[in-house]
Amino acid sequence: MPLNEEISAAIRPIIEASGNYLEELTITTAGKVKILTVIVDSDSHLNLDQVTAVTKEISETIEALPVLGDSTFTLEVSSPGLDRPLTKPRHWRKNLNRLAKVTMQSGSVIEGRIGEATESTVLVGDEKVSFEDIKRAVLEIEFK
């Protein structure tokens, strides 16, 4: 099993027990140091205290993993940034009423507020969009 899959399997239960999701885990190498980047998401917006608590638990688990041996590593845990693409139905539900820019497979672009989202479609502005027709979707940053 690849290293990232072994680490994911070890930390996913911890993350899910805290009511969150393991969004992504990447491993990069900088010299002799491995950098483990873990993106944690939830159904609501995470605050710093929540990220800190889950980071401590992830760190303890990873340090005990025999697969890493005596390897030196840096752990980076964060929540998804505003520029992260909306790729799952829960991303859409979490960002209800926020402004989104959707590029369709056809090349057309739809901009509008996120409305009702099911497991297969989302309302963007006045248009009901099927997830399978979306090429890329991101939140638009708004200043009030």
Automatic annotation (TrEMBL):
Residues 86-143 form the Ribosome maturation factor RimP C-terminal domain. The keyword Magnesium does not apply. Residues 11-83 form the Ribosome maturation factor RimP N-terminal domain. One of its GO terms (cellular component) is cytosol. SUPFAM superfamilies: YhbC-like, N-terminal domain (SSF75420). Keywords: Cytoplasm, Ribosome biogenesis. GO terms for biological process: ribosomal small subunit assembly; translation. This is Unannotated protein. It comes from freshwater metagenome.
